[in-house]
Specification:
By secondary structure, the chain is α/β, with parallel strands linked by helices. The protein has helices at 23-37, 88-94, 109-121, 140-157, 166-174, 200-205, 225-233, 251-259, 281-285, 301-308, 322-325, 337-348, 351-367, 370-386, and strands at 7-12, 41-47, 61-65, 68-73, 77-79, 82-84, 100-104, 125-128, 160-163, 182-184, 212-216, 239-243, 268-271, 289-292, 313-316, 330-333. It folds into 2 domains: 7-188 and 370-386, Rossmann fold, CATH 3.40.50.2000; 200-367, Rossmann fold (3-Layer(aba) Sandwich).
């Protein structure tokens, strides 16, 4: 670490072990534990939600998660991962004044309230929208109204806005965020898996040696699961494993229906996500091809995990991780069924290409560890914390 230690306040709509909410939970933990290793102090304020099924806790509790002080706020009401947390003002009053705040996520009550609190006290904050800044998928009109009334102020008041890819940076610029305030930090890759491990996932779903396509993440609209299933329909004997929670929008029901079709019967397998004590890269290594045919991903952590496991990847050009895996670990294609199907078929037919992409993916993972990404985030924090003056939380940026 260079320079004095920082006190960081991190606001997130959910935190470890809420793995049902996907990659952001892993990202948040890696970032914050990395800051602890670099000698900083980190407080997290978050809801007590762990998934879409269970209610939040009735009482606020503070626990240390590998050196990070996590304040799980009582959450008597919620919508999906956005929880109402009446104890947040009291917790903020009791915490030491931070040097910098990190607002992780967008439109949730915790992050919005913490951004307003930081602006009121003149504490600079970093805003990381997690690909949610542009309204999309569900309740778009409601999101636009919320942005106009309240949430849009979060982006306008931030001293820096973190994008995880060039894809996300372009979205932010198109939405009116000045390029000078955007930092592309990226996300880290897990340590590359040494050698090839086979069997854990195949044994669990009873596939044997049949060709296997894999998707990991929320089973929800916009993730390209329909394109993956369309590709599998045209590939005789190829199985598809979908590992992740039900996104609650009807996609999981559509997957079950597809699995009952004559063309796919017995070849579609939907598994829940691994537990908090697991992150088995060997599940990825069981697949011939990992497919993330998403309509839009600010990054795509599951593709990074697949690359670290040495599994060749098919990505759409709407996934931010294509910036680093395109040409090195992945085939990057347009977001359309024919392109996804042809890329998958090409890899299944070419073992040498699969091996080459797998080796390249592991090389990328070795280069882009979380230690590298945490150092980039620390540099953003230091620059923001040392800047003088404050931003007006309600002011609109001018061109």
């Amino acid at each position: 670490m260079t320079g004095p230690s920082l006190r960081i306040l991190f606001a997130s709509p959910a935190y470890w072990p809420a793995l049902a909410f996907g990659g952001p939970i892993w990202m948040a933990r890696e970032l914050n534990e990395g800051m602890i290793r670099r000698g900083h102090a980190v407080d997290v304020v978050t809801t007590s939600l762990v998934d879409l099924e269970r209610p939040g806790a009735r009482r606020t509790a503070t626990r240390s998660v590998d050196g990070v002080s996590v304040h799980y706020l009582a959450t008597p009401a919620r919508y999906r991962w956005m929880g109402v947390t009446p104890s947040l003002p009291l917790v903020l009053r009791r915490l030491p004044r931070p040097d910098v705040v990190h607002v992780f996520g967008y439109r949730d009550p915790v992050g919005t309230a913490v951004a307003a609190w930081a602006a009121l006290l003149g504490v600079p904050y970093v805003f990381e929208p997690l690909g949610m800044h542009r309204p999309k998928l569900r309740k778009v009109r409601t999101k636009r109204l919320l942005d106009a009334l309240v949430a849009g102020r979060v982006a306008r008041g931030a001293a820096a806005v973190v994008a995880t890819s060039e894809f996300e940076r372009r979205e932010l610029v198109e939405a009116g965020i000045p390029p000078s305030r955007i930092d592309i930090r990226g996300n880290g890759f897990p340590p590359p898996l040494a050698g090839e491990t086979r069997g854990a996932l195949r044994s669990r779903i009873g596939v044997g040696e049949a060709p296997l396509l894999l998707y990991v993440g929320r089973v929800a609209r916009g993730k390209g699961i329909d394109l993956l299933l369309a590709a599998a329909r045209s590939l005789d004997g190829v199985h598809v494993a979908l590992v992740g929670p039900d996104g609650g929008d009807g996609t999981a029901a559509a997957v079950r229906a597809a699995g009952s079709e004559p063309a796919l019967r017995g070849r579609v397998h939907h598994l829940p996500p691994p537990s908090a004590s697991e992150r088995p890269l060997d599940w990825y290594a069981d697949a011939e091809v990992f497919v993330l045919a998403s309509e839009g991903e600010s990054f795509g952590m599951s593709a990074a995990e697949a690359a670290a496991a040495g599994t060749p990847v098919v990505l759409t050009d709407r996934c931010g991780v294509a910036d680093v895996l395109g040409g090195r670990g992945a085939l990057v294609v347009p977001y359309e069924p024919r392109a996804v199907r042809e890329a998958v078929a090409r890899l299944l037919a070419d073992p040498a290409l699969r091996r080459a992409l797998g080796e390249q993916g592991r090389a990328v993972a070795a280069e882009l560890s979380w230690d590298v990404i945490v150092a980039r985030q620390e540099a953003v924090y230091r620059r923001v914390a040392s800047a003088s003056g404050r931003r007006d939380w309600g002011r609109r940026d001018r061109p």
